[in-house]
Amino acid sequence: MRIDFANLYKAHQQYANEIEKAIKKTIEKSQFIMGEEVQALENELADFTNAKYAITCSSGTSALLLAMLSSEIKPDDEIITTPFSFIAAAEMIALLGAKPVFIDIDPLTFTIDPSLISSVITPRTKAIIPVSLFGHPSDMDKINAIAQKHHLIVIEDGAQSFGSIYKNKKSCNLSPIATTSFFPAKPLGCYGDGGAVFCDDEHIADKIKSLRIHGQTKRYEHSRIGIGARLDGIQAAILRVKLKHYPSQINARIQVAKLYNKYLKNPEVILPSIAKETQSVYAQYSILCKNRHSLEHKLKQNNIPYAIHYPLPLHLQDCFAYLGYKKNDFPIAEEVSEKILSLPMNPYLTENEIKYIAGVINSL
Ligand SMILES: *Cc1c(COP(=O)(O)O)cnc(C)c1O
């Protein structure tokens, strides 16, 4: 049996006709950067999330940067975020000269524990950037309530959670500003780099649109310092096809997770937990295993691909040594990073493949 971790090629094959037609049409119109496809995609992304504005951009990382620039995050501002994630949010905070302030995570959802926010708020705190990890939304109601009380900005990093649901609302429409990524391996991926920022405020939306084209308001007139962070027309054309089919892809991912839940029966292994009134899009299906080393060995022996998201928490990364954090500062994030392991997850895994993977893990 040859099992594929993300199976991106199968996803292409499924919609190849439509996607190749869309690419060809974009090339024939020579709308390589921005253009009609980008505008149409932005309307469809706004419809999908129910956010008023969706502004596409060149990646999930640039989406975070644009969101932070539009919120006037400045050097020495303190931004509360998670130490257990991909680096992009903490990295963009630091790139702007602001200070990432980490708090520990919830042991079940791996997203920031809202009850820890208040203890790190100072007069310099400007924003909270929760990451909705592995497809599971952060506890946004609690986060928003604290933010409102202290007049803080909230930017949900929804790079992994686009399409997930929290209390009947979609991720990326749970806070005043949110971002996502269309990196190929994300649940909704394009064929290169891409991302988007979401918001309800027209003024912020206009600012983000200008920031993504070098702070331009009119052609060659620059009212602010921005960056070049536009989306390609071809990526937009591909995303429009994939967005149309995305609900069925989400359902297929949920079915795969259900089958894992059904067949995995090793008491040493903790399965993903989903909070109440929440639907994950399972960007990853990540389990906790006390003896990860032997699990890795066993998976390798049986040709089962896996990934470790993430082996080293951010507060212990060399690039953040200057922040002065040390081991044991965030015990849950540290413990999870030692036990976590992501199993193959994609809409095309068959019941037999899942049974086989579970069998190998159950016999550990
Ligand atoms: C992938 C990812 C990003 C960055 O997205 P890119 O499109 O790769 O720049 C940001 N945050 C999280 C949580 C991610 O998983």
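^ pyridoxal-5'-phosphate complex. The mean pLDDT is 98. The radius of gyration is 20 Å.
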